[in-house]
Amino acid sequence: MSEVVVPAAWVADRRDEVALVDVRDAWEFDGIGHVPNAVNIPFDSFRAGEHTAADEGGDSDDGETGMLPGGEAFADLMGAAGISRDDRIVAYDDHHGVFAARLLVTAELYGHDPAKLHLLDGDFSAWQRERETTSDATDVEPTTYEVADPTEIETPLVDADAVAAAADDPDAVVVDTREDWEYEEGHIPGAVRLDWRELVDDETRGLKPRDEMETILESRGVTPEKRIVLYCNTARRISHTYTVLRHLGYPSLQFYEGSLTEWEREGRPLETGS
Where is the Rhodanese domain (predicted)? Predict the structure, then answer.
């Protein structure tokens, strides 16, 4: 059984063995409470600023693509939270996991072993319904978090040329994880639409049952034998879909970090309509 997306019971049994990361805003973490033993690394802190994407061609301060924060900045955040590259990380948020998934993907792109990266199935609200929370500060012992250069290690990252080629490849599927109206206004030619929320159960706030997800994916041609190339606007929503497909055992996943922001900036073609 996959341990990419893990249930609350799995986390509760291992709270002392994993690094629990809450990516909500600090006021939520402190004021509303959090999972015991969790540390807070707010989403905005590991995300390149919007000025970066607009003014610097979509590159971070370290010259990396998309919305990556830069290796040094990410290392400082993780180290200050007491997390090392050897740690098994479980991340959560209060938005069905989409922000937490972005932390996990960022860690993977900087060299953290993906086998040690886990998403809580459900989110803080789901946890809070049935399990203990606390507002007590978590004791943290700062450490050194080592990062790798995403361009020098094997990662799922692909560039715009690779995405364009995939759109013409019968063995690949380019997947747009945005909402219907966004897709209709303009999408990469040949892309299929799969709103990331379609795989989420609004009641449990976690993933839908596996058979339901597989039925949805198959209806869009997103099947395990294909090479799946994911994009959205700024690589947040694809982080969730990427994590879910990893959970389902899809063997060939590619991640367009630049996403539509970069695609449009480069003047590449768009299709409109459903």
Answer: 14-136, 168-272
Rounded to the nearest 5 degrees, what angle is found at the Cα of 264, between the Cα atoms of 258 and 265? 80
Q: For residues 33 and 160, what is the distance between their CA atoms, to the nearest angstrom?
A: 41
The residues, ordered by sequence, that sit 6+ positions from 63 with a Cβ below 8 Å of its Cβ are none
Classify domain 5-130 at the CATH class level.
alpha beta
Q: How far apart (Å, rounded) are the C-alpha atoms in residues 252 and 225?
A: 8
Least confident of 26-40, 58-72, 75-89: 58-72
- CATH for 160-265 is 3.40.250.10
Between 182 and 2, the higher pLDDT residue: 182
pLDDT at 53 over 80: no
Give the integer Cα–Cα distance in Å for 205 and 213. Answer: 14
Cα dihedral: 68, 73, 78, 82 (round 10) = 180
What are the phi and psi torsion angles at 160 (to 5°)? -65, -35
- Cβ–Cβ under 8 Å, residues 173 and 222: yes
Which tens digits make up the pLDDT trace of 195-206?
Answer: 999 999 999 999
Say if residue 57's pLDDT is above 60: no
Question: Once rounded to an integer, what is the mean pLDDT over residues 137-161?
Answer: 95
Q: Which contiguous run of DSSP H or E holds residue 91?
A: strand 89-92
Name the residue ranges covered by the structural domains of the chain: 5-130, 160-265
Which residues are registered as beta bridge partners of 21?
A: 39, 91
Give the single-character DSSP code of 24.
Answer: S
